[in-house]
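Example is below:
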Amino acid sequence: MTGVLSDREETLVHAAIGALEISEGIVPGEAFPALSDDALRAVVAHRLKETGRVLLPREHRGVMGYTSGYDDAAARRMASNGIGILPEADRAVLAIALLRTVAIPRSGGQHRSTSWFSDGPGTSAAEIRANTDNYFTRDHVRFAVRRLKARRLLRSGYHGQLLPGPALLRLTEAQSTRLWEDLVLVTLPDSLWADIIRRRREQAIPPAPKPQPPQEHEP
């Protein structure tokens, strides 16, 4: 159902897309008719696709719903142009926060979720700074945390603990997998797993086009 819609259907589709784009979490499917109806949801997905976005089904705390994010091709183009790239301190703080709140607890069996949007255990700015061997100052970490919260990549939990933010729900499966792999490359650079990741990424890079000889034009 991607053809002509009635005025009411257009209104429903616009309302659903607006909610998906501005919501800081999961939009419950039953909250919007254009998400609960299969045909209208297909229209929503099509409209998002036309702008380099994608409809993502999500679940958290038993809530089933949707959010939206950049599709993989759009995300790659933006990254190659330097759009959306975090500063060094922000990248380091986010990586340590995700290690402490998601990756390490998951490997220790504290939870089985494959989502980055974890409810704990949390971490703190002091713990994050300690994990950098004090490479960053307290102000570096404090301002990085503030910026990451503004981007909704981190959020505050109980007693001010830092937790992953809702923006991570907008990652596609491929983007989420790459983030996991990036953490492996940072934390276990000499491991067999890291070597496999590097070789797979090198093989995925298309070869540079061969230069063409200049063509001679007849006088």
Notes: The two ends are 57 Å apart (CA to CA).
